[in-house]
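I am writing to request your help with a piece of structural work I have in hand. I set the record out below, with my sincere thanks for your time.
___
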Amino acid sequence: MSELNDLWNNPSVPVELRTTTTSPFGRKVRMAAIILGLSERTTLRSADTRDPNDDLRSQNPLGKIPCLIIGPEAFYDSGVIIEMLDAVAQGGLIPADPLARARVMTGARLADGITEAALLMVYEGRFRDAAQASEVWLDHQRDKIARTLARFEAAPPEPAPGLVQIGLAAALGYLDWRQPMMWREDHPRLVAWLHSFAGTVPAFLQTERDAA
């Protein structure tokens, strides 16, 4: 058994996930933990990325979430954490075959790109005065999202509990909530896909920001 499994299966070693219920990348990790049957081992603790006194900054010098704490050691970002969870569960989200793995990881990074661009658009409005906001920058991010949505609209993944699907569902959920751009009217297949995913994978609704 690996050192990771030894730590995970040792009840005296605390496992803590620093995130918020509104973080789309944190939502990915929370969905993965539920799907893999590992959520009960993980204690959720909120983090304020803007608070200089939050100990998140000593756990992750970047001050970013999600951050997984196993005993005294911290691991980040969401991709790393999900790989660790998948290893503990002995697979389920990430294929072992190198080519299949590369394909899944590429699709997952593509889905993450939607979220990353959407976050940058939200931050542009949150941290800059309206007069300072750059429309050139915002258009650049919109184009990224539009191109990626078009790719997934042309070939949506199966609405199953997989790595690509988790990332895509988190991204679309974030677009629905923050609305940096409207996406539903031009992407009917993705709208249907998200509805099907929500019905197929209970972890999606269980991790909504206002879920109990």
